[in-house]
Amino acid sequence: MMNLFYNPQIQGDSFELEEQESKHAIRVLRLVRGDRVILVDGRGGWYEAIITDDHPKRCRLKIESRTEGYQPLSYSLHLAVAPTKNLDRFEWFLEKATEIGITEITPLICRRSERRQLKPERLEKILVSAMKQSLKAYKPVLNEPVSMEEFLRTGHQGTLGIAHCHPLERLGINELESSGSYTLMVGPEGDFTEEELAEALKAGFVPFHLGSSRLRTETAAVYITTAISLFHP
């Protein structure tokens, strides 16, 4: 079984795990000197290493090989998603989107948003755990929460889309331009307001739908992540 450990700063040929990771490796996984592990830095670095000191507070590793740009996504996906009132649902989205494949996430504060505050440290831990679980070397970028107005003022490249439930003409998600780079928006439980939708269309975002079912915010976001991944196998 492949065991992954994360640290954003991996340098040299010898590396010491932080105390919490050391404890997990030695006490929980019961790894010992001579066992092989993988280190990832969240930016595509994949390091094969061997345990040289199985101390439970300062487990030491010898790095035997390194690969830069390990298995990158063949596309770029930036999802701007309104945080859900029930934070567990938003955290579930973060976990599943990371496992499937996503590049960047922006918590989007809309006029109907019921949650406007997040704890970035907890969310980062979820991203790291999901990255390790899915054997990835890249951790999605998690941006600070921004208002929709501020998000629209930022220049975005590639395919721009906004998922909504208003009775307007919309493309199916499979009809969006397949550019390899996507910036897509998902609104709060009460959907975007008509004014927000109009502002997004003015900024160049194309309206699209996810079928005839009415989906929860986090379900829609995972649906989009899955669909885009299937467009770029």
Task: Give a concise summary.
The chain is of the alpha/beta class. It is built from 6 helices and 13 strands.
- SSE string, helices as H and strands as E: EEHEEEEHEHEEHEEEHEH
Question: How helical, in percent, are the residues?
Answer: 25-40%
Point out poorly predicted stretches. none
Distinct helical segment count: 6
Which descriptors apply to this entry?
233 residues, alpha/beta, eight-stranded parallel beta sheet, five-stranded mixed beta sheet, 6 helices, 13 strands, 26% strand
Describe this structure in words.
By secondary structure, this protein is α/β, with parallel strands linked by helices. The protein has 6 helices and 13 strands. The strands form 2 sheets. Strands 6, 7, 8, 9, 10, 11, 12 and 13 form an 8-stranded parallel β-sheet that branches. Helix 2 runs parallel beside helix 6 (217-231). It starts with a strand and ends with a helix. The mean pLDDT is 95.
What is the topological layout?
Layout lengths: L3 E3 L7 E3 L2 H10 L7 E5 L5 E8 L6 E8 L8 E6 L5 H14 L3 E6 L10 H14 L7 E2 L3 E2 H6 L5 E5 L7 E2 L8 E6 L7 H9 L3 E4 L7 H15 L2
Parallel strand pairs: 1-3, 6-7, 6-12, 7-8, 7-9, 10-12, 10-13, 11-13
Antiparallel strand pairs: 2-5, 3-4, 4-5
